[in-house]
Design brief:
Length: 84
């Protein structure tokens, strides 16, 4: 799963989708996850990175990560062509 290439993300957590004109604000953890998605990291790589940097256990991370991906999907920010 990866972020669409045209999605702009600022250093302050501002996310802009030029296709829809929608914009969003995300926190520091969300910014890190989006950076890792742009680098096409696997779920395990994202989990390893986030759990080593932030105080969160693997189980909690997975719940929040998949909720976050669901939100990204809802706002049409993910490129899911290769998943069909």
């Amino acid at each position: 799963m990866r972020l669409k290439k045209n999605i702009a993300v600022s250093d302050t957590g501002f996310v802009f989708n030029p296709t829809t004109g929608d914009s969003f604000s995300i926190n520091q953890v969300g910014q890190e996850i989006i950076r890792l998605l742009k680098e096409e990291k696997s779920v395990e790589e994202v989990k390893s990175n986030i759990t080593s940097v932030y105080e969160i256990d693997a189980s909690s991370f997975e719940k929040y990560y998949f909720d976050f991906l669901s939100m990204l999907r809802q706002f049409e920010l993910l490129d899911e062509e290769d998943e069909h």
